[in-house]
């Protein structure tokens, strides 16, 4: 019994003192961030959009829809793309009340290993179309939403 207590005491001492304290600046805890997909169509109503985005140093873990009613449902994507750093998203809206202007059309949820700091999403390709199916130039970006936990 005494040998067991001595062993437990030695193990506790080794755990407490065997590892020197680490520099907190060098330790990076995993994190969670939310990225917004924003499209600025100007005066042209948006009926469809598609983009490919990569987020290095992060894993995509969720996709949700946007703010205008036409794009409230989550965009289409390959579920196998989650848990990777690349995804292709697409959405189509129909109806007479298509949104225009600056719109948040989707939101991406990512986890990081903590060493990335601010993530830099990269758009690989982006396409927008009007109600007639014609492509038009719109400004698309993926930006931090400020809603990370």
CATH topology: Immunoglobulin-like
The CATH C-level name is: Mainly Beta
Instruction: Bin the helical content.
Output: 10-25%
Could you say which overall geometry the principal axes of the C-alpha atoms support? elongated
Structural class call reads mainly beta
Kindly state the number of beta strands: 8
Poorly predicted regions: 3-27
Overall pLDDT score: 81
What does the main sheet amount to? 4 strands, antiparallel
Percent of sequence in beta strands: 35-45%
N-to-C terminal Cα separation, in Å? 48 Å
- Helix tally equals 1
Query: What's the alpha carbon Rg, rounded to whole Å?
Result: 23 Å
Count of folded domains? 1
Spell the H/E element sequence: HEEEEEEEE
CATH architecture: Sandwich
User: Which sequence of strands runs across the widest sheet?
Assistant: 3-6-1-8
Can you characterise this structure?
- With 149 residues, this protein is mostly beta strands.
- It has one domain: Immunoglobulin-like.
- It contains one helix and eight strands.
- The strands form two sheets. Strands 3-6-1-8 form a four-stranded antiparallel beta sheet, with no helix packed on it.
- Strand 4 and strand 5 (86-92) form a beta hairpin.
- The chain starts with a helix and ends in a 5-residue tail after the last strand.
- Mean pLDDT is 81; it is low at 3-27.
